[in-house]
Specification:
Helix content is 42%, strand content 12%. It is an alpha+beta fold and 210 residues long. Strands 1, 2, 3, 4 and 5 form a 5-stranded mixed sheet that branches.
Length: 210
Amino acid sequence: MKTKLFIAVLTLSTSILSNGVFAQISGSANYIAVHTSAIDLNDNVLDPGNNRSNVKANETDGILNRKAMYMISEQFVFDNLSLLKKAFAVADIYFDLDDATIRPDAIPVLNSLVILMKDNPGINVATTAYSDSRMSKYNEKLASSRAQSAINYLISQGISADRLLIEKHGRPDMGNPCNNDPSCSLATQQLNRRTEFNIVYNGINLGHVN
């Protein structure tokens, strides 16, 4: 039945809908409220001998199916982009100089991401890793290793490898003047030795759209 599709989509969205932040989307005219449920179709509605009820059930099926299709569409992402970004925000993790080892301070961030991905099996993650402006001869390889270290940790915690990808790595987009100034302070350089995580929702990388 078409209602099964709706229930499946609603199930994928339950965790983010229940956190209060994402539930604000229910104010949109295009969004199906959390309290609307296909389970409300009782035996009387689906009675084979009740033609009027069957028409009503078919109409309800059609509405739920359209709403389910909307929830898994690109348009849903564009309509609710700011709330999706807030609901799926993931902190960066940082690395020591000339090292791709996961540090203790990165573990809580990665564990939170594991929980997020397990609670929302419909999302994927794209990683982007950077190095600072020193050691330029092998920065790209080092950044790649940092991205892979993060992915390896997520896999070790039960996340499927096909939900994870390395989007890019290297030295661009450092976000501060240290991109071209190797004499920057150590604290500023540290901000560049990082791996970022972008959520891919309904096929759209949330970090790529504004």
